[in-house]
Amino acid sequence: MTDSYLLRDNDTGFDRVLAFSVPARHARGRVVRLGPVLETVLSAHDYPPLIKQLLAEALVLTALMGALLKEKGSQLTIQAQSEGGPVDLLVCDYRDGEVRGYVRHDEAAVAALGDYPTLEALFGKGYLAITFDLAATDERYQGVVPLEGASLAQACENYFAQSEQIPSLIRISVRLNGPRCMAGGMLLQHLPDSEEGKERLHAGEDHPDWEHVSIMAGSITPEELVDPALTMEELVWRLFHEEKEVRVEPLALLQRGCRCTVEHYQSILSRFPEDQRAEMRDDDGTIPVDCAFCSKILRIPV
Ligand SMILES: [Zn+2]
């Protein structure tokens, strides 16, 4: 990585999330750009292009939805589980600005797919579980939607519409062919009940405010989502410049992070009875643990 590339990252905001809202329309959103973080996650395994594309989309979604969490220590996990498809597991999570993810797939079956497979062609009979773990209250919200339709983004839109009754629009763009991996995305939601103490207003796809902002946001192009010449702030301004007020707030930088430390696995393994640990131990006295996110084996002395 060269210095000039680092400078460019800072200018255009790769590996960043921008929060925005259009108060008069009761709309809020997130814009995300992934660059080096995406490259790091994708390079942990030797994925074919189709799986890279899928994982890149999933990571953008993870960052967009994870960035809705406010309290430190809260986590967002998306997990696709399937039967009979070339991809049998996809999992990504977000916690405190750290993202990670991986995909388990059948190499030969993926190679036999065409260029733009549907979710059904990828996952067979599949479901997407979206889980919000809230640190402050220890609460867990989980919604499960079928993996149907054209994209993971559409499945997530369905999750918000069905499980949370929040009209949502999600757009994602992935560029893996250029000199660098880039991905960008935008999430827009209609939240008429966001004002505390006020009765929940009518929410729905047919609300005039939502119709208006979703048409504006829907006009975004795949090129704009990843265009390094356009900052995320400029992107939001371009979409909503006719509104009286648009608020933006840059959130913390995104990082690729994993929790596969020796201490973490020691604390888990120490809860097993000694005879079970003895069975797991190798000749060198350690227990090997495989982290699929990092594609590495840790040797845990326990
Ligand atoms: Zn790891």
Shape: globular
Helix percentage range: 25-40%
Tell me the strand percentage band: 25-35%
Unreliable runs, pLDDT <50, ≥5 residues? 1-11
> What distance separates the N and C termini?
38 Å
With strands numbered from the N-terminus, the spatial order across the biggest sheet is 7-6-3-4-5-11
Taken in chain order, the helices and strands follow as HEEHHEEEHHEEHEEHHHEEHHEE
Q: What is the CA-atom radius of gyration, in angstroms?
A: 21 Å
Please tally the helical runs, counting DSSP H or I stretches of 4 or more residues: 11
- What ligands are attached or bound here? zinc ion
The strand count comes to 13
Report the mean per-residue pLDDT as an integer. 90
Main sheet properties: 6 strands, mixed
